[in-house]
Batch of 4 targets.
Target 1
Amino acid sequence: KLDKLRFSTREESQAETFRKMRLAMARDVRVILIKLADRLHNMRTMEAMTPAKRVRIAGETLEIYAPIAHRLGLNQTYRELQELSFRHLRPWRHAALSKAVQKARGYRRDLVERIQRDVEKAFVQAKLPVQVYGREKTLFSIYKKMSEKHLSFAQVNDIFGFRIVVGTLMECYMAMGVLHQLFKPMPGRFKDYIAIPKGNGYQSLHTTLVSPLGTAVEFQIRTEQMHAVAEKGIAAHWMYKAKGAGANAQDAQRLGAMWLQSLLDIQDETRDASEFLEHVKIDLFPDSIYVFTPKSKILALPRGATPVDFAYAIHSDVGDHCVAAKVNGEPVALRTELHSGDVVEIVSAPNARPNPAWLNFVRTGRARSKIRHYLKTMEQEESQDLGEKMLAQALRAEGLQLPDERDENAALWQQVTRWSGNRNRAELLTDIGLGRKIASIVAKRVARLLAEDGQRPDALTLTLGRYASDENAPLQGMVQIDGSEGASVQLAPCCRPIPGDAIVGYLGRGEGLTVHTADCSVGKRLFERDSERWMTVEWAEQPVRPFETGITILLKNGKGVLAEVASAVASAEADITHIDMGDERAAQTSELRLLLSVRDRLHLAEVMRTLKRQPSVLRVARVKP
């Protein structure tokens, strides 16, 4: 049972509890309805608990359970959970606001009654049967508005509003016309949630009008079916089924089921319970924007969403291969914030892959979990490929070739993985690629097992294997660097090797392979400390991308020297990726530090020769640790 497991922190336990609850409610949504009802009962009966426990439960309710209720359209439950949480978390502020609202009811009663009389009279004259209800903002929503907008209570002028309930959808728009004739509408304060429902199925027309005394009053207009869904959400499917509120209630149930399915998708791609809860919290947002695909399909996204969120909302493949975006026909950066009404187009490329930097700006839990899952999968695949090359290289020194996965080698790999503590061959190779296992030690174990089986090579074969010609050496397992290795192979930032440099590889524990130049002082210190983690690597004949390296330039101070340097670098067909210049304006000379993107060592030499020919340049040197 879950409550018998031990967790290192209460947060971890809470995350695992929520994860298990999500698994149950994905199978039957009534599970979450029962859970929310249970939580509501607990919140109503917390007076006997200690203050610390009340605060903990109220915080958990406000952070997780209330947003879930809102996400499923259970607005009545949502509001009560918020109110009860607010009362226990901020008792003094709750009491002060409650007193202020009671006073406001007294001196605003006449205004509210006058507006209601005028509205009811206008609808009678229009021969439009409606029900007019007064409504009041909850204390928590007032507190939230005051906090977010830095307002005093006196400045919150929309505490009271009205709800108009009509018979049919067409009458919603007719009722809005009657209200706009009666009172002046405020510009930019009309929202049509009937044409574009909220993500939880909520539908209404919202319009804010100027009252006879000049204050803003919000009206919500909806049908009886819409009202049922607005209050009961996904539960309306059962509660109002017999009354014929089918269409709207079924929409609410469908949207709720879609959200629960999105949680399943996040669950499938998230191993850690705390990470799963983090992703779900991101998706428990009340505020949405509505954007369009080029084919006019509407997508709801959280406020602050970017084109990357949009791409993953369409399909994970679109997000994974996204390279650029256009908003309203104009190219924009992928981190650009989208707004309601934007038409978004995604440009993709088959060889593109998610960028880890996207995690700094995406807003949806779906996008975040998909990106992390892809990066973890790619890291594992790259590490497995690297581990295979490293083990093959170590076995070649033993005069052996790497046994493949054919059936005749199954018993061998079973023995090796049992010895290494891995579940299978792929996991062992991944561990080697990540530096968790030493390739040479594994190779010796494989050689020993083969020898016991009578497959150990003789002395002549072993010698030939160790001193194979360069032509044959790369045939199996030589680790070659071409720039496409990804996260499993990193170029050391201390020496920044480029093709043409003599290089060596250092296998950090759990960090993959780091490539250093052979004369790197940092690399030499690592070798002295842990020599068995070093391995031979080489450059591929045709690297697939440019590489960065650093140079320093000593130049005469003068007007236009930076432009002169940049022009010289460009003429040598290289790019400057970073520039750093000391504040030496008073001196006759200054030192400039550049990061250059070059093809190889020969290209770098050409760039440096071009720079040395410039009149203002006194000295050029490559940066070395």
Note: The longest strand covers residues 547-556.
Target 2
Amino acid sequence: MSDPIDPTESSEVPQRGSAGKKAALVGGALVAVGVGAAVALGLFEKEPPPVVAVAPIIEDAGVAAPVAPTASLPESDGRVREMASRMSEEAELQRWLQEKDLVRRVTAAVNNIAEGVSPRMVLGFLGPADGFQVVEGKDKSVTIDPRSHARYDLVARVFGTFDAQVAKSMYRDLKPLIDQAHGEIAPPGQTFDSTLSRAIQHLLAVPVPEGAALDVQPQGALYVYASPELEGLSRAQKHLLRMGPQNIRVIQAKLRELQGALGLPPVAAEGP
């Protein structure tokens, strides 16, 4: 549930006995919006619509025609914001879109999720304001406080409103940008479609816990999941798990809808 030995992955789980106010980390918000924001930017479809090339007018056949410069990824933010804002009427989405270098952030987040890595380094602005909390029972049992799950209700609600068909129609305009960003970090020959498919499948493999409360147990100054199955999940999967059962269902339902609408290539099923 936490990764105390990794300095790049701050734990969301507070020290035992603390109020948890200093533990306001990103958690499940990053996972949901890492994939969801990528879809919101209209970057995915099985095959892009054909683009008709228009030959430039060349006055001197002996001189090569100038190639129009491609806008840099950071310079594309305004265009991306305008297109992505069509995905949902939720005001919070507009606030998230004010971040810079959106295409690189989202591409990196999806790539991280596909590898099971936390995307918090690139989507830290989505972190919840309140800290992680637990409830200690009279029998010394410890469960995650439902208020910890509720911190992600807004993220799940916004993600649940994303229009998959709008995302699909936006693919053509933004495909060159996403390919450029993906090419900067992906192994040679790996397509973004395959990366996205793996990311979605990785999140769909997260089990929805029975009941509203998840048992945790102390491990040193921190807490881990009492269930070996849950504790064995990847960091990316644990972020989704922290959103709580109700929000997990919302996120996974939307991921399945997007997966079907975008015609993504299938990947082998994985276990949690």
Note: The first helix runs from residue 28 to 40.
Target 3
Amino acid sequence: MKSSLNLQLGQTLTMTPQLQQAIRLLQLSTLELQLEVQQALESNPMLELAEDATTGDGAPETETAPGPETEAPAPDQAGEHESWDSADYGGNSGQRNDPDDRDPFENQAGAGGGLHEHLLWQLHLSPLNDADRRIGAALIDSINADGYLETDLESLQETLGGETEVGIDEIEAVLHWIQQCDPLGVGARNLRECLLIQLHSLPPETPERDAALRVAEHGMDHLARHDFKGLQRELGLTEAELARALERIRTLNPRPGSQISDQPPEYVTPDVYVRRDSGGWRVDLNPEIAPRIRINSLYAGMVRRVSDARDSAFMRNQLQEARWFLKSLHSRNDTLLRVARAIVERQTGFLEQGDVAMQPLILRDIAEALGMHESTISRVTTQKYMHTPRGVFEFKYFFSSHVGTRDGGECSATAIRAMIRKLISEEPPDRPMSDSRLAQVLSDRGINVARRTVAKYREAMNLPPSSERRQLV
């Protein structure tokens, strides 16, 4: 085979380190971005925290002259890099308050703790003796996240058996004490006992307390079957009396343990703020999403004065990486703001009227409007949050599929779910609408949606079927 050299022209896409960094920063959440900025500050001496404030629209301010205590940048730092060197990003200067200065009650609330820890804390504060506390700890260990006792007392008796025999009556007594702890009803062995514990704790003069006690004591099987007529006959109550008793029972908590979560609360920091002004809806970046950083002008000015070639190369590389990092941050903020404004422009109906006015929107719509790729829009809308007058929402919340309407238009799935939720909330309690009826009502409004689609949307909102929504009035 004869070998030869050929010249061929072509275009290829090269994934440069700068582009990789920009893409990675784009998909980071606010918390991840803060960690990334902190790591950059620790690893690159050319970066420093800035104490200047950013402008209202999220664009970085630039320094027009070096500060009195810093040296002017070297000549090669001027020109196209000048704005990057003096730019600062984010809004938090990185100052931290001393933990000891915080409210101790705030620290305790933030520390969280699960149901078991909450019950054990009450157990240790109780006047019970050591033997009863040992029984109480075993009982608490057998309580699930909903607050119910999962182990029978005989099994617990065997577990507690040792040199000193523990009687069932002793375990019952400690269990009764636990059931009066907070949250009330915890430690119950079934739903009936849970409701009875909560009802017995009500003052005797509480309206419908006695009737509700009779229903919980003798009518749970009828309630499970929604057999209200049979329940009336068995308890000798009128329809109005039974309705009021059931209303009292609905005020109780069937899962008392759920009031105390094992997971600490998760807080969301919005990336953008949406507010209304005289000219319409305004979108601004949150200045607190990351510490403000900039090029350290003192170190940057030392680059040309370093005599050692190896040290000079190291400092130049660090300076170049710092510039790339600042430029990637600026690109991230700019893209985030453009996408947020495009979303708000298309979802003004939601901001003014709520879910029922949500417009159909897909990633491609925003990508085409901004001249970006769908994958870029996907990265921007993941784990990014928007603070609006109606609450804080992830960017992805504003995207939904559509269903055709009778006049050839489109209605978003979010708007349809809101309509279904509103129809169910307004239906007669004794005559709830079936999925077929809901589909018919939507069809009368010009929205073509199948019964199976209605059922899917209803289940996604955790709304029970009509057979379970029927109530006695």
Note: The chain is about 50% helix and 5% strand.
Target 4
Amino acid sequence: MSEFNEKSDDTTQAGSYGAPDVGLVADSEDATQSSTTTGMGQEPVSLAFGMVHKDPLTVRPRRSSIVICACLGVAALILSACLWLFAVRTVTGQEYDDMVWSHFSQILPSWFIDVLSIFVKTYVDIAVVVVFSLVAVIVNVVRRRWLLLVQLAVFGMLCFAVAATVKRVLPRPFLVNVASYKSNSAPSGHTLMAAAGAVVLICAVPRVWRAVAALIGWAFTFLVALSVVQAQWHRPSDPIMSMLIVAGLAFIMLAFTRASGMDEPGTRMSSASIQIVATVMITAGIVAVLYGGYVFWQIEPGLDLSAQWARSGACAAAFALMLGVSLVTFGTVAALRQLTASPLSKLGLIGAPPEPPKPSEERND
């Protein structure tokens, strides 16, 4: 009705300025066509432009989604700091890390240790991360997601800076004699960069590939985390801390999603694959974390004496905690990426209004 009224008003206004005489119709035909083109062509274009920009969800996520991403990001970073304080600044934390560091290989089957030996090689990890990054760059360039490309570049540089500097800055006080080395080893640089590369891949691919990318990224990061503990490069708290840092930075990055970093209006829709995969990953991850915490609570009395009966439980708890944190991290990243990239609205689902017909088409009609 509003569009009809606007066109009616234009017609009435043109008539009020004075109708041309019959003898002047031929002389003023070009002017009439020009005026018709201006009145009938530009008005729907401006109307369509206004409809697109009146819906803020075409250029940014919902405010609630932005707040969720920011709050979860800060919470993940706080959890990583709390984990470091417990693992490094308490006697119980140092004893637990040292017990798992010394006996983790004993709970793993030999064939699985052979698999982990592949991912402990630095050049393999670098190669996989480079492949993830190249795929992300190519996809963004082809899809012209320039703002998303900038987001992911800044995110990657921040993760690299954390991996290169934080380990050297954080202290490790001497609280108890340990079998592992005395210097600080948190966070795990290998795990941090593996998780960062996986997050970049998840955020870069289109909607139909996000669930698959989340599973691939989780599997790669989890195997890297296990490999650095099994090879005694890191204590179990180190890769967990790395995954929490990456999760926090990724959630904060997603809070800044804008414009070309989102799915195009007209292509947005809910994703059954992401709903299923993210839900299963987050649920299974929470269960694994709770199980790991329960086992840790059971074996905690045996840590002071390095009791033999506590070793298998300590290692099982570490395995469950690394599994749970990795599942929650990538399940949540996939869910929040979908939430920020495809906020559902009427305009987002159907796209921009159709363009008005060309003047030649109007004359033919």
Note: The two ends are 22 Å apart (CA to CA).
